[in-house]
Amino acid sequence: MKDRKDLSCIFRPRSVAVLGASARPGAIGREVVKNLINFEFQGKVFLVNPGHDVVLSMKAYPSVLDIPDPVDLAVIVVPGPQVLEVVKECGEKGVKGLVIITAGFREIGGEGANMEAELAAEIDRRGMVAVGPNSVGVMNADPAVRLNASFISTVPKPGNVALLSQSGSIGETIIDFAQFQDLGFSIFASLGNQMNVDSRHLLDYLQRDEQTEAVLMYVESFRHPKEFVSVAKRLTRTKPVVVVKAGRTAAGAHAAFSHTGSLAGMDVSYDALFEECGMVRVSTVEELFDIGRAIASLDFPTGKCVAVLTNAGGPGILATDALVAQGLCMAEFSPETTDTLRKELNPSAAVSNPVDMVAGAGPADYETSLRAVLPDPKVDLVLTILVPPVMIDGEEVARTIVRVFNDLGRPKPMLACLMGLSKTALKGRRILSDAGIPTYLFPESSAHAMRALWRVGQHVGRDPAPPLIRLDTDVKAAQSIVQEVRDQNRKVLSLQESLLLMMAYGVKVLPYESVTDVEEALAAAEKLTFPLVAKLDEPDLVHKTESGGVIADIRDEAALVHAVQNLRDIARTHRQDRDADDETVAAPVHVILQQMARGHETIIGMTTDPTLGPLLLFGYGGIYVEIIRDIAFHLHPVGEVQARKMIRRISAYPLLSGARGDDPVDEAELALNIARLSQLCGDLPEIAEMEINPFFIAADGLPCGAADARVRLA
């Protein structure tokens, strides 16, 4: 990371100075001092308040410059107009780390933004690092440090999960709820305005932090998304990251130039970013917390086959539905497992998966089932459900689950679901939680956590993606096409220009001819093979099919003549409808003749996200692509390895891989064309949006290629 920052002065300081320390009840400066003391910070604490010699029975200094000892970290809670001056004094003192809690900077705009810019320049000039401003503070629960440089009221339990939050209030809420659920944190940081230290610096630091084994994040925006991706990809190879990002909706998709732009209007760029990073994105803070408990306590599964044990049929069905909906599968037990369950359980029990031990199941039944199911090689994860009935001691069942799980060496990830709010259920949840078995109130929450465990396990320990291979292309020809369009003050390429651009980069294009009248069409037909497709080449006709601008299955010359005449009439009517001048209306009408193709219609596209840059799309294509929405996105650049992953992510992939006896499509050829399109958008950044729809793909050796293409320049 070229902009790596040493954050040890923030999270492992030997001394902390509170600038703006106060004895006034309710003052933030008072709460910060109390938290440093009550959390038993293992270093020295100095207080700075020019108006008081003593604050909370501790000596106070007029300025940080008056402190006789070195200061590693300064926590700043003075009023906004004073922040710059005290930061300058910190620089003179040699302070390396700052946590700026004071608000009223960029988040309020106007003069606040100007103040922050001046503050950032001073911090950079002094070579300091700063969290904030507008932060609630930072924490490090390592027993050797015990730093709570925040004004959060809840004291977190030490643990192995780091929490990064752009919202101080949401971070505080998660810590408060974690205390209730007995989840501990290693490090907490409220990012604030991310003026100097942002999420990429924190992830880089956490990669090397031995106390942290997993990371939870609440984010709203990224200041340097490309560098964030690079750092996050390294981190997730060793430590899982779960993130909830606010701001899923986006206005303006209705005005998109292409299918690709319309489909990308629902925050999919960030889905692609997190997928690229190997991070698990969740929708809610509650889900973030649920999954955090699982990844903090359990190893990752080697597969996604789940066994469900329950004492009630309804919850077992709910669990099955939720697990399958999350993309997991129900394990198929080995014959030995089924025989043991049938022999040992109540004759009324259902011994297939889910295992319903019936309502009277007690500790012995749970022990029998767990000892049979946990070692089964066909089982990757286990979900144990208990609805405590009146006649069964739920606490004893919980103790039995813990004992058996530990006796067997915790061989596979296991979650528990104790339904209900009875005293027995509450005590049972506490027993399981204390033993490191994540416990949930409903099966659906358990299913979300299990899916996250499996997804994270796919990324942790993975090898880095191979470097992209530069493909042979005719860059000069592509640049010439784009420049000619620019010279004509146009932004939208014609269909022929778009196809020629694709061909310059080696993208397969189905054989075609461009004609302007019937005579040229008949001559072109001799070079092609019936049946043909004829389509208008009018750049401002966005969706040709809906306007009648595409005529397919032309089987002879008579039908071809009729089709060309119809398309010429449609073009001139379209020009008149948009109030074109007489010269434009009378200009030649260009028609593309193309051989009809056989195979699967797919879509390959690119749109530009204003924050993240080029975004590649692959999906099952055709005119209904926006309705079906069977698509996968990936951040640029995309090589053949990444392209194959995109292809395999869509729901229709079984059709492409050969369903019902069909031959599989040439996946290698498809991936190569996606990679070529990615290289094109990287080499020509003036392209704002482009797509091929449809791109026909068939079995290896059969014709494939683009049938239609659109390109819009920025």
Tell me the name of the CATH class of the largest domain: Alpha Beta
Number of strands: 30
Question: Which topology of the largest domain does CATH recognise?
Answer: Rossmann fold
CA gyration radius, whole angstroms: 31 Å
Overall form: flat
Sheet with most strands: 7 strands, mixed
Instruction: Give the helix/strand class.
Output: alpha/beta
Task: Report strand order across the widest sheet.
Answer: 3-4-2-1-5-6-7
Report the span from N to C terminus.
31 Å
CATH superfamily of the largest domain: NAD(P)-binding Rossmann-like Domain
Provide the low-confidence segments as ranges.
250-262
Structurally, the number of domains stands at 4
What fraction strand?
15-25%
Percent of residues in helices comes to 25-40%
Arithmetic mean pLDDT: 90
CATH architectural arrangement of the largest domain: 3-Layer(aba) Sandwich
Query: What is the count of DSSP helices, taking H or I runs of 4+ residues?
Result: 25
